[in-house]
């Protein structure tokens, strides 16, 4: 088993600290920048929708491209190096306000925002997959995942805690100039941190290429499999938004059809399938990964709803809008400790059991917001931070367990598509985050909320309370129930790792 040095774990963590300068900085503040500084109108909403739907597909494609990359630096590390200049560039361009007409500004926003999300995909999908090949030891992956998310929360803390102050400092009253200069500063930090990750990590889990086809033919083959990605997302989206008989029928038809197609394809001889088709079939018949797919969606719904309603809760329930910033900082500080505690606790009780415990305890504590008095700030902060301590373990365990599902796939099928497994995992998390944001608006609108009409606020307060308590908690409880079906225990992971190590030694000896 490969024991990773502290230096390498810290180097890997720097990558997600850098990525969260974009994820929690650029992407979190971009909407308010577009409307209040850049000057876009409601047309920006369509921009976010279009990019959100295309982003998930690009994740899958990037995962497959990375799996088929072969360089002296490995499969995934080169992409971190190659994508960093693009990520830094588009980070600055997105927050630059050119002197264009309204139409040209919208075109500029589309180009730069799509460029930023594509650069983020080129960087973050290989970065996530890198965890799965740095060590074959599932326990070391859990530790590595803890360091990763400690870095992520630290990067988020820097942005969410200081971005508005830096805009004021660098802009001196000119918010457009302030945003641009702040992004220059963050882009510089991002570049340094990504270079540390590239130089300080190493890929050790190496598998021979099994594809004799060119990358072009593989991508063309992938395009034929895209309906398996797009149709389920479309069915879920329609059922989510319309919740009527027709969307329900479409949902059932799509998923029943996919199940029948998968059963038929499984009966075919592998010689009749391309490597891309084999990877897709292996993925869709990988029970641990399928359960994790659901867990990724449910945990993002849980966390996304909680974070999405905080600003409303503090503005209208607590009556202090600025206090929301201090609450965010408190949550992120606690998250660092939660992420770093995950490895120790997982060794004591096992990853799947710990995830069930984290889901249940965080859900129960979140329900407490239904009864906590809004004038008791101490109770609000203590309850929120306690729930966040366990919530921080969810992504830490999730990405570690994705590596376990990659081991399981290689052990069962003799193939390892690490990039595809991780990219599909990040895709479903992004989808969950998008649905969480939409659900917040759906619930508020059902209570008649209109931000431009103060008379609607009092009627919407019960909805905000539910969004802080029972609604997100229900997704945590559903996740805990789903995890009861997860088949891989610590002993099974150890057995699989041992067998895979023996296979790799036999292959290398030939």
From TrEMBL:
Presence of keyword Membrane: yes
Source superkingdom: Bacteria
Protein family: Belongs to the sodium:galactoside symporter (TC 2.A.2) family.
One Gene Ontology molecular-function label: symporter activity
Pfam families for this protein: MFS_2
Name by which UniProt lists this protein: MFS transporter
GO biological process terms held by the UniProt record: carbohydrate transport
GO annotations of cellular component type: plasma membrane
Keywords attached to this entry: Membrane, Transmembrane, Transmembrane helix
Membrane spanning residue stretches: 38-58, 79-100, 106-125, 146-163, 183-201, 222-239, 245-262, 289-314, 326-346, 353-372, 378-399, 420-447, 467-486
């Amino acid at each position: 088993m490969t024991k990773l040095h502290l230096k390498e774990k810290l180097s890997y963590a720097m990558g997600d600290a850098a990525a969260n300068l974009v994820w929690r900085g650029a992407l979190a503040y971009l909407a308010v920048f577009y409307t209040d500084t850049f000057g876009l109108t409601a047309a920006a909403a369509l921009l976010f929708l279009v990019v959100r739907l295309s982003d998930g597909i690009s994740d899958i494609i990037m995962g497959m491209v990375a799996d088929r990359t072969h360089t002296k630096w490995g499969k995934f590390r080169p992409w971190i190096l190659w994508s960093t200049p693009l990520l830094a560039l588009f980070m600055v361009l997105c927050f630059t306000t050119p002197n264009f007409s309204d139409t040209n500004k919208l075109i500029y926003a589309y180009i730069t925002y799509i460029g930023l999300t594509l650069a983020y995909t080129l960087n973050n999908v290989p970065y996530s997959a890198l965890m799965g090949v740095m060590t074959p030891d599932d326990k070391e992956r859990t530790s590595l995942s803890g360091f990763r998310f400690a870095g992520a929360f630290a990067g988020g803390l820097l942005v969410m805690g200081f971005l508005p102050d830096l805009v004021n400092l660098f802009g001196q009253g000119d918010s457009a100039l302030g945003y641009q200069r702040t992004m220059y500063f963050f882009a510089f930090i991002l570049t340094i941190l990504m270079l540390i990750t590239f130089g300080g990590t190493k890929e050790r889990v190496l598998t021979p290429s099994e594809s004799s086809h060119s990358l072009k033919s593989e991508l063309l083959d992938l395009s034929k499999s895209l309906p398996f990605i797009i149709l389920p997302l479309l069915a879920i989206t329609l059922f989510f938004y319309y919740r009527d008989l027709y969307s329900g029928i479409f949902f059932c038809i799509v998923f029943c059809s996919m199940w029948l197609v998968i059963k038929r394809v499984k009966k075919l001889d592998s010689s009749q399938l391309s490597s891309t088709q084999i990877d897709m079939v292996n993925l869709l018949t990988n029970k641990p990964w399928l359960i994790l797919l659901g867990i990724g969606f449910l945990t993002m719904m849980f966390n996304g709803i909680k974070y999405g309603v905080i600003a409303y809760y503090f503005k209208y329930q607590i009556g202090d809008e600025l206090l929301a910033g201090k609450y965010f900082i408190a949550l992120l500080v606690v998250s660092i400790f939660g992420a770093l505690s995950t490895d120790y606790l997982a060794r004591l009780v096992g990853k799947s059991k710990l995830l069930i415990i984290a889901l249940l305890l965080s859900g129960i504590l979140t329900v407490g917001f239904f009864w906590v008095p809004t004038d008791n700030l101490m109770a609000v902060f203590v309850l929120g931070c306690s729930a966040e301590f366990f919530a921080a373990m969810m992504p830490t365990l999730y990405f570690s367990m994705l590596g376990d599902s990659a081991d399981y796939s290689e052990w069962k099928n003799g193939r390892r598509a690490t990039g595809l497994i991780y990219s599909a995992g990040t895709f479903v998390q992004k989808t969950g985050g998008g649905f969480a944001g939409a659900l917040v608006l759906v619930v508020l609108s059902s209570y008649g909320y209109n931000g431009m009409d103060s008379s609607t606020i009092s009627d919407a307060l019960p909805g905000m309370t539910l969004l802080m308590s029972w609604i997100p908690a229900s997704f945590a409880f559903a996740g805990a129930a789903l995890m009861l079906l997860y088949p891989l225990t610590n002993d099974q992971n150890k057995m699989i790792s041992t067998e895979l190590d023996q296979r790799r030694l036999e292959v290398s000896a030939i």
